[in-house]
Amino acid sequence: MMPFPAIIVTMTTPEVVLRGITVAFGSNIALNAVTLSFPPGSRNAVVGENGAGKSTLMRALFGLIQPDAGDVLLGGKPQRFSSPADAIASGIGMVQQHFELIPSFTVAENIVLGAEMRRGILLDKQGAESTVRNLAEKSGLPIDPSVRVAELSIAAQQRVEILKALYRNARILILDEPTASLAPSEASELWAATRRLSVTGTTIIFVTHKLDEVMAEADFVTVLRRGEKTFSSPVSQTAPEQIASAMVGGKTGLNIPIDNKVITPGGTRLHLEKLSVNNHRGSISVVEASLTVRAGEIVGLAGVDGSGQRELIEAVVGLRRSDRGEVSLNGIDISDWSIEARRNAGIAYIPEDRHQRALVLSFSCEENMILGRQRETTFSRKSGILNKTAIQAFFADRIAAYDVRGAEIGVPVRSLSGGNQQKLVLARELSRDLSLVAVMQPTRGLDFAAAAFVHNALRRERDRGVAVLFQSLDLQEILALSDRIAVMLSGRIVAILSRQEANETLLGQLMTGVVAS
Amino acid sequence: MTGAVLKTARRSCLSLVIAFLLGGALIASLQHDIKAPFAAYNALFTGAFGSSSSWANTLRQTMPLLLTGMAVAVALSAGLFNIGAEGQMAVGGLAAAVAGYGLKDVLPGYCLLPFSCMVGALAGAVWATPPVLLRVTRGVHEVITAILFNYIAQNLTRYLAAYPLKDPAGQAPQTPEVGATLPRLWAAYDVHAGLPLALILVCLFAWALRYTVWGYETRAVGQGKGAAEAAGIAVRRVQVTAMLLSGAIAGLAGAVLILGEVPFRRFPADFYGVGYGFDGLAVALLASGSAWGVIPAALLFGGMNAGAEAMAFSVGTPKQIVQVIQGILIVAISATAGLTPIRRNFRSDSVDADGRENHKADVRID
Questions:
Q1: In the prediction, which pLDDT does A282 show?
Q2: Which of A5, B170, B235, B245 is most exposed by smallest CB count within 10 Å?
Q3: Interatomic CA distance for residues A32 and A510, integer angstroms
Q4: pLDDT at residue A5 greater than cutoff 50
């Protein structure tokens, strides 16, 4: 007989089955009848590009969103999770990409928050700390429970999040892109911890787009693409190429005509020399990227979403400071120039997010047509008074040239369709003397006709000797539009190919790191 | 644009109806008389617009509200909420009083008057500087800092007027009388040249917002900061300019009050709290959607302030009921999305590196 009653934690982990999960946001189907199962104590990778639906699937499993159809089954029993609290009560824990910790609280306080240990009306601080210390030792996630979270590294904060889930008896642990902001050594510590957890029966489900992690750390892999499950298999029977093609291959729905015109590019317009850019969280987004874009050529930036394409283009147009290296335009170092100076030097920018970055939605169409150009002598007098007549004449001319439907003087730009808004942005940005056009996701959300219009407009710029640098997540678009293709992986440019050398399979493998160039 | 203005005008009118209905219910229950609200509102209206002297009283109240309402509207048009108008007004008033007294033997009256006004405006702008600089460089929310600067202004002006700058000739804690005052428009009424000055400035502001590069860039920053930044507009410079201008107009309001109005002409230690700065917030919100809207909104608030005394005197309804109605009015406007710029502003957004911000441009000043 034991002298003290021992609390013996012998919970078994149920099998998780997702059956026919369908989630729609309006008319947009994020997940279409996805069926999956995660055996107890297994380590599972869910991979796919951004927008493939992997985070949505995890959020449905964790009760953050309610699927429109389909069931979550635990140990064969259907569950209804109307909130994360229900999922937690059923033994599911999730570590989101952005941690939900209170910086000014200690590790122990954060972990017990919402399930505090009490002594009367007081918080049992010592009890909490010793419980957390025990839990940390047992699960191999070393942490000092009395330290304030604000003083911890990202990796340590992530351990706190995992411990928070374990403290609530999570037997199924969901990790959303767990290594996205970890250094390699920190990542390997994390993987070691997940291995230990799975040995004790905890099911691990992690979302990633890094194939090396899938191959090394998962027992089972599932690939999602555009809301559908395209591949699911034990990792031991899977080649990385299969995963890569399931992730990025296939038809996109937009059948973009490829233009095989042979170009003869001119001199160097844009040159990046070992450009490094930090993102707002301080980690490196672009690592020593070197790239040249010449007059009269289109260079496409391919890569899985979040590989540093956005940061690279924003550093070119001036929205983001470069931390090291050089951005030069026509041979002049412009790294320290303001956005305005770069625009005046002939850089046009067509952003991915029209509503946030390209248009003032409550402004009228003609006001948007001169956004950024309001100080040009054509549009305002020396006295600082806008020349309405000239603005309206320019507007009428551009609207006709770019066939912007519905655009009228005095009508707010928000009332235009997405395709016509994008045409208006093109009409504004391309209607001046340019050296370089920097474009992000040129046809995101556009229908076929509008997309073709945008492509032709960019080709026309190239043909009149402008350098075009664009980024797209759509490989068909990359292949159709680019004269040369730069592939980014984890912030680095890992390959630069001519279009003739490139194909979807090769790009997919380069983007996911299956093959090095 | 006209559609949006009509929409906000309709919203403001609806809010007015709601405020007066609820205020009426309150009056009826206070006075145990179902007819009391009609008598009260009749007295309020007559007190505000019923005779030439009540008109004069209304215009006297309207004048500072035109300026403070415009001050808040200028900041709002660049997406900033200047809750510090009251403090800027007090600092501006004191500075104008000091200039108007200190230089009265140096400058002739026709120079002293505009100079004192300019000193007041400058002081208001200076007082608005720390909040906006902290906002654009450090991301500290301007509402918080401006409120704190109001406290500093309150106590600083009180101390200065009561001690170092006190009129040694009198007992009251106030500065000596200024050397030149704004001329009255009509000898019989206390309506002075500040009124046409304020009207001209509001018209100038409304025009400039729509027809100048400055106005275009200010509105672009206020309604679409991310797009303005990507288009090369110097967002921080625009915001600093708008806030300094806002502070200058609030400071000018203080100067005009001190230099024109009986019983002032001196800066009294308890000047802060005269209330026009805070009423200016309400005026700007009621006018939301249009710089021109500042004029009717200021007239409405001026009339309500002016009629309150008459209402209390003739039918015995407490004059504070008017403030209750004004309060309900603001709540009603915010309930119908009028306070969107405040909600937007409370998300700290000035130094996020991604520049991502969700703009709902329901309320805007143009």
A1: 59
A2: A5
A3: 28
A4: no
Chain A residue with CA closest to B366: the answer is: A363
Provide the ipTM. Answer: 0.85
- Return the pLDDT at A307: 86
Q: Which residues of chain B have pLDDT under 50?
A: 1, 338-364
A316 in contact with B, Cβ within 8 Å: no
- CA distance to partner chain A, nearest, from residue B270 (Å): 41
What is the reported pLDDT for A212? Answer: 84
Angle among Cα B237, A358, A390 to the nearest 5 degrees reads: 80
Average pLDDT over residues A163-188: 87
CA distance B272 to B17: 31
Give the residue with greater pLDDT, A130 vs A2.
A130
Q: Which residues pair with A289 in a beta bridge?
A: A275
**How far A155 CA sits from the closest chain B CA (Å)?**
22
**Which residues on chain B are in Cβ contact (under 8 Å) with A351?**
230
On the question of a common fold for A16-248 and A268-512, the answer reads yes
Beta bridge partners of A329: A270, A332
Query: Whole-number mean pLDDT of chain A?
Result: 88
Return the biggest CA–CA distance within chain B.
62
Closest to A455 (Cα-Cα) out of A427, A477, A433? A477
**CA-based nearest residue to B266, from B177, B163, B192, B190:** B177
pLDDT score at A4: 37
Task: Give the phi and the psi of residue B165 in degrees, each rounded to 5.
Answer: -105, 10
Q: Class of the A16-248 domain?
A: alpha beta
**pLDDT number for residue A33:** 93
Tell me the CATH number for domain A268-512: 3.40.50.300
Q: How many residues does chain A have?
A: 517
Q: Which CATH class is domain B2-346?
A: mainly alpha
Structure tokens at A207: 């979302």
pLDDT at A283 over 90: no
Q: Is A380 on the interface with B (CB under 8 A)?
A: yes
A388 touches chain B (CB under 8 A): yes
Chain B: which residues have CB within 8 Å of chain A?
Answer: 1-2, 4, 211-214, 216-217, 219-220, 223-224, 226-234, 352-359, 361, 364
Identify the residue whose tokens are 């980024």. A471
Domain ranges of chain B: 2-346
B192 has which bridge partners? B184
Question: Looking at residues A453-477, what average pLDDT do you find?
Answer: 92
Q: In this predicted structure, what is the pLDDT of residue B289?
A: 61
